[in-house]
Design goal:
The protein is mostly helical. It has three helices and no strands. 16% of the residues lie in helices and 0% in strands.
């Protein structure tokens, strides 16, 4: 179950307020699984290690967000802006990344098993050690990736 206080805080003046709160509460588990954050402005937020599994982040702006080691299994990230986001070691298994912008994103060590990456823009994304199949890559838009 999602934590309502965390969700309310995240919807405020996002980057500044949220990141200050995260710095003050570094050991607090972030539980936002199943929440609806579609079209939310979450650019530059620190969601490292957060549980966002099954959440709706479709069309959300996560530009430069820190999602390293986040649990995003089954999350809807279709059409999301994840440009330059840190998704290293994130669990994106079964996630919907269709038409997502992942330009310059760090996906090193990420689990993309079963993720829908059709038409996702993986331009210059770091994919070193990522669990992604050649079939998945053939469905995405890839330029200058680093495997």
């Amino acid at each position: 179950m999602a934590n309502q206080q965390q969700l309310d805080l995240l919807k405020q003046e996002v980057a500044t307020t949220w990141n200050m709160w995260r710095a003050e509460h570094p050991d607090t588990a972030i539980k936002l699984n199943g929440v609806d954050l579609s079209e939310a402005n979450l650019g530059e937020v620190n969601l490292a290690g957060a549980d966002l599994s099954g959440a709706d982040l479709s069309r959300a702006d996560l530009n430069n967000a820190n999602l390293s080691k986040a649990r995003l299994a089954g999350t809807d990230l279709s059409g999301a802006n994840l440009a330059a986001a840190d998704l290293s070691a994130a669990d994106l298994s079964q996630a919907n990344l269709r038409e997502a912008n992942l330009r310059y994103a760090d996906l090193a060590g990420a689990n993309l098993h079963g993720a829908d990456v059709r038409e996702a823009r993986l331009y210059w994304a770091l994919l070193e050690g990522a669990l992604i199949t050649p079939e998945q890559l053939s469905q995405a838009r890839v330029i200058g990736d680093s495997l």
